[in-house]
Design brief:
The complex is a heterotrimer.
Chain A: H1 2-33, H2 37-41, H3 55-62, H4 66-97, H5 103-113, H6 118-132, H7 138-162, H8 166-174, H9 179-208, H10 211-216, H11 223-229, H12 236-257, H13 261-268
Helix pairs in contact in A: 1-12, 3-12, 4-7, 4-9, 5-7, 7-9, 7-13, 8-9, 9-12
Chain B: H1 8-37, H2 48-55, H3 59-89, H4 95-103, H5 110-121, H6 126-133, H7 149-177, H8 181-189, H9 194-221, H10 226-232, H11 239-249, H12 253-277
Helix pairs in contact in B: 1-12, 2-12, 3-4, 3-7, 3-9, 5-7, 5-10, 7-9, 7-10, 8-9, 9-12, 11-12
Chain C: E1 4-13, E2 16-26, E3 31-35, H1 42-50, E4 57-62, E5 65-66, E6 77-80, H2 92-102, H3 107-120, H4 136-149, E7 154-158, H5 166-183, E8 186-191, H6 194-200, E9 203-208, E10 211-216, H7 218-223, H8 228-233, E11 240-243, E12 260-263, E13 268-271, E14 279-288, E15 292-299, E16 302-309, E17 319-324, E18 330-332
Parallel strand pairs in C: 3-8, 3-9, 6-7, 7-8
Antiparallel strand pairs in C: 1-2, 1-4, 4-5, 9-10, 11-12, 12-18, 13-17, 14-15, 14-17, 15-16
Classes of the chains: A mainly alpha, B mainly alpha, C alpha+beta.
Amino acid sequence: MKGLKLSRVLTYVGAVLMALWILVPIWLIAVSAFSTRQGIFDFPKALLPNPFSADTMSFFLGATNVLPSAGRSVVVAIITIVISSVIGAPAGYALARFNFRGRDVFRLVIVSTRAFPIVILSIPIAVAYIQLGINDNVFSLALMHCALALPFTVLVTSSVFAGVPRDLEEAAETLGCSPLQAFMRVVLPLALPGLAAATLFTFVLSWNEVFASVILTSRNRTLPALLVAQLDESPLNYKYAGGFFLLAPSMVFMLFIRKYLFTLWGRVSR
Amino acid sequence: MTTRRTNLTPYLLVAPALVFMAIFFAYPMVEAFGLAFRDNDTGALTLSYFQKMVSDVQFQPALTTTLLLIVILIPIQFAVALAMALLVNAKLKGASLFLYIYAIPLAVSELAAGIVWFNIFTNNGFLNSLLVQSGLIERPFLFLSYQNQGWLILAVVLAEAWRATSIIMVILVSGLQSIPSDYLEAAEVFGADQFRKITKVILPLLRPSLQVALILRTILAFQVFGVALAVAGTGISLLAGEAYKWYYTIRNPNVAAAYASVILILSIASTVVFLVGLRSKNGEAL
Amino acid sequence: MAEIQLNHIIKSYGKARATNDVSLTIKDKEFMVLLGPSGCGKTTLLRAIAGLEAIDSGTVTIGGRDVTNVPPRFRDIAMVFQSYAVFPHLTVWDNIAFGLRMKKLPDTEVKKRVEMSAEMLRITDYLQRFPAQLSGGQRQRVAVARALAMPSGVLLMGEPLSNLDALLRLDMRAELKKLLRDAGATTVYVTHDQVEALSLGDRIAVMKQGVILQCDSPLRVYDHPVDKFVGGFIGNPPMNFLRAAGLAAIGLIAPPGYDLVGIRAENLDSFTSPMSGALEASILVVEPLGSHNLITAKVGDEFIKVNTRAELMPEPGSKLWLKPMPDKVRWLK
């Protein structure tokens, strides 16, 4: 009995250590982001902002281009969500509901493009955009982000739709619904939470994306692109505040998404 | 064959996605090779861009550092991810809180993760602060100087491990959850201890998940970019960073595309290696 | 009038034929049970009637109207699913009203029908609850209420009781029988449970591998199975089958062309001493079942199951003499 308790305690210790491995770096960037300009250069450093100050954050947010870039990031993410949902969700529904010829091939294509190197896609697309004269705008960048998000959207929506029993849809049809009505009245309301989580994932994907963003934009930067392009010349307080500003939404998003992590990634990975 | 759902419906639903992917996946993939191996003016096949890339002084270091990074990074990540997954699966009180915490980096951008670890490793960062305060060293050590390549790589490895282990953890946890508890109870009844349960039951049953995670992770590791740039700046060179440099700073898309095709070939090669090396009987991996 | 006619229905999945040229007429207000083991095509047939399954060839008519290419919503049917298919995002009330609203019935009519149907199924107290707050049995009642509320002449039921536990199933079976008789709709009921089929159906269509082997009244199917499969599938214990030749010794001569005899366990008189016209059997197992005993015995090299009076309690290994009731002997090919 005693041995059992000991192993329980050790398991907890392990779990807490792992949690600290994740949390301590986040804490430290928060400390830096909420120190004064002077505090950032203090050495040795304190583990609490001393004094606590919003100066660094407001300096960052007040810097030229930061807020417009952040706004652009949001716009790009929203366009990405809209396009990838409009294009991807029907395909996901088809995968979940229909047994059609070529279904397995289609699924394989989707699955194998899910980890497709963005580096490879970005450079030829950038060249093509310049030739077409559509480089450096939010819509073009969103299209590129869609390419990243689409395999993910298709697989996630397909697992979400597959989670709504076929019977419910058929029941609705025997009760007088057309296939479209059955979808709108029964499938969609039930799939909504899962679809919302998928949407958040797409948002995070686009909000975080660096390589394509910095390659495809020059004046109309998104926030990560702006930060990367200025990495060499930006002062420390700007950097830390920027890092924290990029990171903060992700912690909140994860709070909403975590329930779906496994229905999303579990099924996707198989 | 003429009742309600005609067979056309699924194809109509799938068509937009296929068209989109043809434009944004198939075209750039082919065009990457086109840019890399076709002369800009004449359109004739040429190796000149490729030669330019190979003879560049940064090519050799970029290739070796990328491979080195992967060789160090992947085992660390899998060890950590497996530990996390087993801890989450151990049905601790508060397991969902731990899961949330472990999953946070899943949503953290490469760039933010890089800055987070830059904050630790930089000259007047938290690591130096800790070492000086505890009296281990007298003055800050320049971890991120390009002269200390070993430390630079280690810092990038830690940052990337911190950021990208969550995804493996999630895949492994969902793999663990799909293992029927009967198997573990049976193993227990037949006298397996905790260690044997893990090595003899859990790991073999987890193989499909491990394979998927391995493939995903390796492909993504070939593209490490933002993390390295934020942590090490131009201190170390990686394949993706070189592609960026050639496109953006030097403004030579052809050499950049040559780098891109190298990454593509390495990704495909590693996928094949893992598929064949960890072959499962029914090919469930992909 | 809601007579259902199925004409030469063929449906294949890949190479396998789920239904192989099935024709069946279900009379107006008749209760037809489709019975068979899983994979026999009974569910495919039901879904073909509902319009949920596209058939390869053949026609379906309901009430004289060819509905082969008509989508489910225009077929004037109501259906109860095995999984109940109660909408989890709607209250019980809204579930029952769902179809009525789709048909754009006036609100007063919707209310009237919902309440009536809820009362019939005794779920009036749960009308404002969501399905997640109900037990399996209650959800099942909602599913039936939803179907009965529909003003349709055809009721389709796909294994509606199979997800209930045994006791509840028994109760619900009796209740369904009464409800459906009162409702007076043409009913097609799919099940793999022969007891359910016997207890509910006006007629039973026994299916195997995509064809209907026999379609008759329950008693007829039980008493006069057309072949070994039907006799073995219906009844508990299954009908005994013996080689016809072995019965010549006790004076039962098979008509020409028949080489098998089928006899049910309750249609054998058993004696503990030799008796003319009786087969000698050695007892293997005796199972006391309260009302009677079920004995497994061996006649020559063939096994046979016999029901005996509860008082008759022979030892395994002893002999028993079995005399078939002559009018209950069925000759089969």
